[in-house]
Structures are given as structure tokens and as C-alpha cells.
Specification:
mainly alpha, two-stranded antiparallel sheet, signal
């Protein structure tokens, strides 16, 4: 009986330690996918900067290619939602917001 309690305690502790990491990885995949969808939307709606948006979108999806299949599905679903709704993480995409996303330090790695 004591052995079962120790095993249950160890498994519970392991699950509690692993769950925040798993949630973070899914959230990261969602953010990158939403960014790619936003860049696709912005490329179609902001004249004169299509190349910059397309480059960022492609670089974001190179990062998605390195993810596990489950995280890829999360990223693709987020991309489609952002593109179809014209929203990035709940905020409506307009010309100013598209340009702010390009300048945001979080996404600079996709423009270098």
C-alpha cells in the first residue's frame, strides 16, 4: 500500500512540473501561428509592404516546421483563425496594427 502511495505522489509531482512547460509550448505555437496568419492578412490589406509581411510569414513557418505534429496543428489553426477573422490575439488588424506588429521586438527575429 505504501508503494502505491509513493508512486502516485511521484507521478502527480511529475505531472505538475511538466504541465506548465506543455502549456507554454502550446501557447508559443499558437502565438507564432497567429502571427503568420496576421502577416498573411496584412500582406493583402497593407499596400507597399507585401514583401516584408510575406518574408515574416515564411520565416515564422520555418519555425513551425521544427515543432511536433500537435504543436504544428495548433499553429496552423491559429494561423487560419487570425487570417479569416482579421484579428491578432483578439485585436482587429488594421494598417497601424500591422505596422506595429512588424516593429514589435518579439517578432524582430523574423525580419533580420
Amino acid at each position: 500500500m505504501k508503494w502505491i502511495q509513493i508512486t502516485v505522489f511521484a507521478l502527480t509531482a511529475l505531472m505538475l512540473m511538466a504541465s506548465p512547460t506543455w502549456a507554454d509550448s502550446r501557447q508559443d505555437a499558437h502565438r507564432i501561428g497567429a502571427f503568420a496568419g496576421a502577416m498573411k492578412y496584412c500582406a493583402e490589406h497593407d499596400d507597399g509592404r507585401e514583401g516584408r509581411y510575406k518574408m515574416a510569414r515564411l520565416r515564422a513557418f520555418k519555425e513551425v516546421d521544427d515543432m511536433s505534429s500537435r504543436r504544428k496543428l495548433d499553429a496552423i489553426a491559429a494561423r487560419n483563425l487570425a487570417y479569416e477573422r482579421g484579428r491578432y490575439l483578439g485585436r482587429r488588424l488594421d494598417r497601424n496594427h500591422c505596422r506595429q506588429l512588424v516593429k514589435a521586438s518579439e517578432w524582430r527575429r523574423f525580419f533580420n
